[in-house]
Every structure is written in C-alpha cells, then in structure tokens.
Write a structure and sequence with these properties.
By secondary structure, the protein is α+β, with helices and mostly antiparallel strands. It folds into two domains: about 1-30, no CATH class; about 35-145, 3-Layer(aba) Sandwich (Rossmann fold), CATH 3.40.50. Helices cover about 30% and strands about 25% of the residues. The chain is built from four helices and four strands. Strands 1-2-4-3 form a four-stranded mixed sheet. β1 (about 45-50), α2 (about 60-70) and β2 form a beta-alpha-beta unit. The radius of gyration is 16 Å and the shape is globular.
Amino acid sequence: MRCERPVVEPMARRLEHKLGGYSLPVRVVRAPAEELPFAEESFDFVISTLVLCAVEDPGRALAEIHRILRPDGRLIFLEHVRSDEPGLALWQDRLHGGWVRVGHGCHCNRPTLENIERAGFSITEIEHDRLRRAPPIVRPLIAGVALA
C-alpha cells in the first residue's frame, strides 16, 4: 500500500534499515491506520507511539486497532494529549493550526485517552508524564495499556 502522508515514507525506510540487523522476520507495512490490511483478531498487541496525534481520524484508527486485536488483546500506547492544565490547553488550542503544519500533522490538543476509551478499550494502566525537550504544547504525554 502507498503511504498517503509523505512524512511517513522516510520513517518507514529508517525503520526498515534498523530492522535489517535483526534475525526476526519483520516487515514494514505501509497503510493508513484507519485501513489496516490485517484480519480481525489477528494480533495480541498493538503498540502506538506518538501516532494517534497525527492520524486523520483517530476514532477510525482506534476502531481498526480494536478490530485486529484478539479478545483481551492489548493496546500499548505513548501519546501526546491535550493538557489537563487549563492555561496550557488554551495555548494548545490557540497554536493548533500552525502546529499541525509545523509538526507534520500532529494535533497537539486531542483528547486521546477519551478517544481510546470511546473506541471500546478498557484502560488497565495509565501514567501521565511530559515529553522532555519538546515545545510546551506537545509535552503532555500519556503512557499506558488498554485492553480490547
């Protein structure tokens, strides 16, 4: 499948290069998160690292992740989120339009945890943190595990 977003291709090539040194059979699949080319209930785990802030439709992407996970499969995530601090959340909203362009499609003010729960996942572990050495509007971070 062809990548719809040009920023994805350099990262995919970089990942392929890194994986070339491993003995495990691995392949990089280029597909939109909203249209994963895998059978239902075919994975035990899905790992999402700074992805849900940049997908076109987080609801559809999470529905796809839920679809491909086996019952009791786990979504392990590390994601940018909308800040719980009202002042920072206001700045995320104000700077959102410019940041989407500068941040390669990153939506810094998405309610990602709520989106995960809305998609039918049960949060089993959650940690709120900050992404160090990043602009303040993208520092709020969540890391956790959700059960399908």
